[in-house]
Amino acid sequence: MAKGASISGFPEWLPSERVVEQRVIDTLRKVFELNGFIGIETRAVETGASLLKKGETSKEIYLLSRLQEVGQENDTPVEERLGLHFDLTVPLSRYVVENSGRLVFPFKRWQIQKVWRGERPQEGRFREFVQADVDVIGEGTLPDHYEVELPLVMVAALEELRPYGCPKATVHANNRKLSEGFYRGLGLTDIEGVLREIDKLDKIGADEVAKLLVLTCGATEAQAAACLELADLTAADGAQLREKFDALCAAHGIATDGEAYALAIQGLDTLAMIIDKAAAIRPGSVIADLKIARGLDYYTGSVYETFLDGAASLGSICSGGRYDNLASSGSRKYPGVGLSIGLSRLVSHMLHVAGAHASRVSPAAVMVAVWNEDERDASDAIAAKLRARGIAVDVAPTAAKLGKQIKYADKLGIPYVWFPGQDGAGDEVKDIVSGEQSPADATSWEPDSMSARQTVVLD
Amino acid sequence: MAKGASISGFPEWLPSERVVEQRVIDTLRKVFELNGFIGIETRAVETGASLLKKGETSKEIYLLSRLQEVGQENDTPVEERLGLHFDLTVPLSRYVVENSGRLVFPFKRWQIQKVWRGERPQEGRFREFVQADVDVIGEGTLPDHYEVELPLVMVAALEELRPYGCPKATVHANNRKLSEGFYRGLGLTDIEGVLREIDKLDKIGADEVAKLLVLTCGATEAQAAACLELADLTAADGAQLREKFDALCAAHGIATDGEAYALAIQGLDTLAMIIDKAAAIRPGSVIADLKIARGLDYYTGSVYETFLDGAASLGSICSGGRYDNLASSGSRKYPGVGLSIGLSRLVSHMLHVAGAHASRVSPAAVMVAVWNEDERDASDAIAAKLRARGIAVDVAPTAAKLGKQIKYADKLGIPYVWFPGQDGAGDEVKDIVSGEQSPADATSWEPDSMSARQTVVLD
User: Fold this and answer.
1) Exposed end of chain A (fewer CB within 10 Å): N or C?
2) What distance in Å separates residue A441's CA from the closest CA in chain B?
3) Element (H, E) at A216
């Protein structure tokens, strides 16, 4: 990371690192568009009212004030002030409602942008970072096949990043209706509370969560134990999931003719569909994991978290779910499902664990040398010819001694140095790695295909 | 523009408009990289101290406060608070100083990012917009050939946008040393003041500017008239510029052996070099215009503004200059030169005046129909085969009546609908514009080359 990071939580990349981030962004965009997603960008700000409506991060917001208004900021209620968005889902919901008459539904959109969290500065937490999202928003209804397609799009996108140091990704899916139905069947009522505690399982372990369920959610020890058993349930396929779930319900006396069970089965049907369909298309990519709860309270059905092989400490790098009530206009609802990649954290892992970096700092494949400043025009003319053929070119900054010019190219990783012909002689080009030098014509010469483009390599 | 723009000054594009903005960004990046510029991205925030240091926009800053700190924001002095950057030059200077040990100088960088101006809301002013910048920063010194190369890179970039509705661009160049030397030669001392008033020429006209020069800068009427004569000076080439300038000095009694004249000639030499070299490479692209002053006070030499043919009311859409004192660390200086395209305003012009829009809303070239939900897997498998070959594909959202599925494709502008073969029959693909339908194989079929990719077209 750039040594600076001179403001804690606001990461900046050095040029060679930025090439990796840019490659990740370009690759994700390519996959999203191959799948028919439409790119949008929303403004960085939303009203306080919009930001405070939903989500547990609602307290981690940066509000804006104009310099001229310093001292009078609080004359305006927080709801009417502007704040930086903390995710891309809340802005999408607002955008869809505002522009519903001009969009085609279901609206499949991708969006890669910075978001901000107004957290207290602390080690390792980003306060500014990039998210890469795909969502599908329906008008009135939204078919549930998108609940398996979207995680599969994300898996396909992450798979494309593996040559650049992204480990194999697995999406862990659950369904809030399944959890809620089970908890209600047990007699619990503080569903949000139980989900919040279950969400802590990976961080604090089962014993602590059991204590918290009793302490904060009014659960008996038996109810708490049952919640932990559900979180622990694994299944190879949809049929086994159903079988194990029914066994658990029977063990805890949950009636199969009640409303709670019916709700759970709604969620289970979707989850079973997801894992069976994903297994058929890309085995091992999406699995059922009944401890996935997701903090944000706008999810109403499927929830997803994504983990990378050998990178457990990174936590989930691609999360999301289905939200049926986030966007509405009058009586019209816009249910959605989407996932969001924590792109900055992912890039940080690729850089610092996998050792990803640019094959060279400069995009230029060639540096044209300059014999003396009076002949710079000749060097510029060669550069123009090469650029017209799509070859990226730099020209030596000064007509310094040749060794110094070559050193400039070398420090930037530029593989070729071009020598303009003098006194009637033709041009020559030198591969500064092999040292090989040969005659060249700017209207036809091509760099070696391996050196033509700046790319991302691993240590 | 998206109907919303529900917060004044924060524009958002509809999907078809966003395609134009994205194409502009992609095109600029391509040209910048062809010229060997290195892409970076800086954080959105700087400290108040850094933002307040330079520039007349320093009063148009958004400061941030964490929601938890509402009511206590002002316990922290403005200098220590965080604010959103108002341009990309101040952040670049800070980035270069912080990372100087890890960069290669001269550091040629491109950067395309949003910036924010904390202005009072008013018609037609953006408070959030995208800038596209190129700058070269030297360590200690910076050769002046960059002062003609950078405007030429911008002209080349804008030229690439002409098929998408950007008019022909002309860079108007001046040099602050030339102006300052002339003003001092006249006996004026409030140089910043004179530049500020001259900057208003296009807006309020010569008579008003003359009055202001007398009123606010202590000029006599004769001095004011001389300043306006300089602003009016035009020249076909460097030699004529020198000749006309010397005549003007003689007319106003400016001694050619004084310090003021020497300063002016320093500036004139650079400006003459710029227009002569630009004329040789791309005639008519960069011209001398001695009324260009630039508001931001960090410029120390060349200054540029860029105007589009037939779009005078748009003002300058690409401005910049040379700044020798913006970045320094101890006694080490980092002089720079750069230009910045007001990308959002340019895109707005291309959309609303030239009628640029996406050739289709969806990136997909094909929509695969779904006969019924039980056979969705077959449609998905076809889509996967096409995508593996780089063809962007959408799949029908529901197994609705065929007419409804085709209507969905049509509304998104998707040119082909794919019909999976049933009962042993082969697949077929229909061009929904021509109505032509023919057998097709997902492992080999190619769309018509005109329809293969989403692009930008004009009305």
Assistant:
1) C
2) 18
3) helix A206-217
Q: How far apart are CA A360 and CA A415, in angstroms?
A: 9
Nearest to B158 by CA among B313, B323, B340, B280: B340
Q: How confident is the model at residue A5 (pLDDT cuts 50, 70, 90)?
A: low
Give dist(CA A222, CA A215) in Å, integer. 13
What's the pLDDT band for A60 if we cut at 50, 70, 90?
Answer: confident
CA–CA dist A422, A379 (Å, integer): 11
CB proximity A418 to B under 8 Å: no
Query: What band does A6 get if pLDDT is binned at 50, 70 and 90?
Result: confident
Q: ipTM, 2 decimals? A: 0.95
| 3-state SS class at B39 | strand
Domains of chain B with CATH codes: 1-168+309-358 (3.30.930.10), 177-297 (no CATH), 366-458 (3.40.50.800)
Per-window interface: A 33-92 vs B, CB < 8 A: 33-45, 47, 59-68, 70-71, 73-74, 78, 82-84
Amino acid of residue B430: K
> Cα separation of A104 and A359, whole Å?
41
Report d(CA B46, CA B80) in Å as an integer: 10
The answer to whether the Cβ–Cβ distance between A398 and B67 falls below 8 Å is no
- CB B437, CB B425: distance < 8 Å: no
Residue in chain A lying closest to B394 (CA) = A36
- Backbone Cα Rg of chain B: 28
Residues of chain B in contact with residue A60, where contact means CB-CB under 8 angstroms, are: 66-67
> What is the torsional sign of CA A398, A400, A402, A406?
negative
